[in-house]
Amino acid sequence: MNELEVSMQKRWMTALFLVGIFVLSPSLPASADERRDSAAMTRLIAPISQSVKKSVAQVVTGGRPVSLATAVSSDGYLLTKRSELSGDPIKVRLSDGRMYSALVSAVRRSHDLALLKIDADIPLTPIELTDSSPPAGSFLVSAGRTGRPIGFGVLGVAARRIDHQGRLGVRLYDDGSGRAVVRQVVENSGAADAGIEPGDLIVAINGLQKRGRDSVVEMLGGMFPGERVRLKVLRPTPLSGNLVNLKVMEMQASIRDFSQLRETENDTKVNGPRSVRLSGFDKVIQHDTVLDPDQCGGPVLDLSGRVIGINIARAGRVVSYALPSSLVMTELSSMLQEARSAR
Questions:
Q1: Taking a C-beta distance cutoff of 8 angstroms, is the pair 77, 69 a contact?
Q2: Which structural domain range is residue 236 located in?
Q3: DSSP labels for 316-333?
Q4: pLDDT digits (tens, 9 = 90+) for 149-206
Q5: How far does the chain reach from its first CA to its final CA, in angstroms?
Q6: Rounded Cα distance, 69 and 114, in Å
Q7: Has residue 14 been placed in a domain?
Q8: Domain count across the chain
Q9: DSSP labels for 233-292?
Q10: pTM given for the model
Q11: Are 187 and 303 in contact (CB under 8 A)?
Q12: Which of 9, 248, 278, 303 reaches 20 to 30 Å from 101, CA-CA?
């Protein structure tokens, strides 16, 4: 055991004692030093987060931070959360404060991952992923760009699937002639914000002609929260007598998570800001670290300093999801190959 591991082990004996008091004795009021977010606790877990400081960056687009990114190769590639990226230029701020432009080199929609390549000939310090799977109840540390831990939590649920719940926010029916007609528009949905109205006919999605309700539902069902769709809509406009004119309209609409469409104002206050995409993952681990949406994309470590996953979504007030390192390693290999072969 090296000097760093010994130091970490001593610190964690103290940390586990304090957290044990907090977790196992919920009836007792926690002192300031016993809270997970206390300054004392932050000092105890700081060495773990510091160990990956050079491998964590911040992604900025549209003039604001949107996520973290994790360096995965020495030649300038980083992984981040795809759904938080917009069409605006991307900047990456490294741990030392330097900022560089970056481009998306590969994506994996099913896992909400984007591989970025910085526009600079500088070496990065890649993260060292491990395929270990910590059991439920394990303590986890989420690392930030500056080396300061951004969160400390407990793994609550082992790796599992989170079903896809992306919705445009319309209810449809067939008009009898093979066309999909909007019966209802869900409040606060992407469809509502785009201006879709009951009675509109959806005839094309992303440039592809669609006939009938089932065809439209099938294509929309393959879209993930955070993605945008181009819709061609025909809107009936009454003319004189019994005549009707079909006005052709082009619209851009966002796909949103179904749980957010059902969220009340009180739910929003309790949960706080959540990730644009928080469902449709083949395999994630769940932990109770309190993260902001723009803190996803960075590494999650166990008490030994091993990187066991990449944070991918804030799903609730104390519900965060991370992609297991074993899954990330599998996807990363093909993503890097794809990106390098395209250069």
A1: no
A2: 166-255
A3: ETTEEEEEEHHHHHHHHH
A4: 999 999 998 899 999 889 999 999 998 888 999 999 999 899 999 999 999 999 999 9
A5: 42
A6: 9
A7: no
A8: 1
A9: EEEEEE-STT-EEEEEEEEEEE-EEHHHHS--HHHHHHH-S--S--S-EEEEEEE-----
A10: 0.84
A11: no
A12: 278
